[in-house]
């Protein structure tokens, strides 16, 4: 099964490298948002920190991942509509390897985009107090977030009737960090908005990553962050695999 996944993964990664618009959307757009908020709005935003890029980066990383997983839906949609999916499942390979190839591709491509964004942030003055263990912890949280959103992306990729429908689900995910603690503290928001921002998944994930990167330690938000990521991942995995099985019958 592993060898089959590697072959399918190689096909998908070659498609990504041949599609410059994918690279631009996933990596460059979050960097442009980072530049805009740091150098245009940063001087007018009060976050209680000396370096706004340090405050902003965790939210930008989540936006990067949310943008990237939209292409997972699109790649799956193209495989289904072109008939490639039907061909793959008739071949002497484990059928689940077809889905796992898309999932692993999403993890690899999004990890590369995250590294590019972090490198850009370093050039802009980002600095972290986290040690190696802390960075590994951040990587683990981001990995769980990627996996959760990737399995969520599989569902519209398999069920959408149009290309627009396959990617439309990602727009709320990209917008969600803007109504969280990613850009400003939630206590500065109007009460109703602040209550929503404080209790949605992005805020706990952003706060956890920010605490590790800036303070070198975890905070209480880590438990809510892990619960959200694991919960979304399990539910999305169950639904997506059931949808896949129904399409095989």
Automatic annotation (TrEMBL):
PROSITE patterns found in the cross-reference section: ABC_TM2
Domain ABC transmembrane type-2: start-end pairs: 21-247
Keywords linked to the UniProt accession: Cell membrane, Membrane, Transmembrane, Transmembrane helix, Transport
GO cellular component: ATP-binding cassette (ABC) transporter complex
GO molecular function terms attached to this record: ABC-type transporter activity
InterPro entries membership: ABC2_TM (IPR013525), ABC2_TM_bact-type (IPR047817), ABC_2_transport (IPR000412), Nod_factor_ABC_transporter (IPR051784)
UniProt-annotated location(s): Cell membrane; Membrane
Organism superkingdom: Bacteria
Membrane-protein topology: Multi-pass membrane protein
TM segment ranges: 21-41, 53-77, 98-126, 132-154, 166-184, 222-244
Family note: Belongs to the ABC-2 integral membrane protein family.
Official protein name in the record: Transport permease protein
Species this protein is from: Alkalicoccus halolimnae
Lineage start: Bacteria, Bacillati, Bacillota, Bacilli, Bacillales
């Amino acid at each position: 099964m592993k060898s089959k996944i590697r072959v399918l993964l190689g096909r998908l990664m070659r498609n990504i490298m041949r599609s410059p618009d994918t690279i631009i959307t996933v990596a460059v757009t979050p960097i442009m948002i980072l530049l805009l908020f740091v150098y245009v709005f940063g001087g007018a935003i009060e976050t209680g920190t000396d370096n706004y890029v340090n405050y902003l980066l965790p939210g930008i990383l989540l936006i990067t991942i949310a943008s990237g997983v939209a292409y997972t839906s699109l790649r799956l949609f193209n495989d289904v509509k072109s008939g490639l999916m039907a061909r793959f499942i008739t071949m002497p390979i484990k059928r689940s390897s077809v889905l796992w190839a898309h999932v692993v591709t999403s993890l690899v491509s999004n990890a590369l985009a995250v590294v590019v964004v972090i490198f850009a942030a370093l050039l802009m003055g980002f600095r972290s107090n986290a040690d190696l263990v802390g960075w590994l912890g951040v990587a683990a949280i981001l990995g769980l977030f990627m996996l959760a959103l990737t399995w969520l992306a599989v569902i519209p990729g398999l069920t959408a009737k149009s290309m627009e429908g396959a990617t439309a689900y990602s727009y709320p995910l990209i917008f969600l960090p803007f109504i969280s603690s990613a850009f400003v503290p939630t206590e500065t928001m109007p009460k109703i908005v602040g209550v929503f921002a404080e209790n949605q998944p992005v805020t706990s994930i952003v706060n956890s990553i920010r605490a590790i990167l800036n303070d070198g330690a975890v905070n209480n938000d880590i438990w809510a962050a892990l619960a959200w990521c694991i919960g979304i991942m399990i539910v999305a995995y169950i639904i997506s695999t059931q949808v896949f099985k129904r399409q095989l019958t």
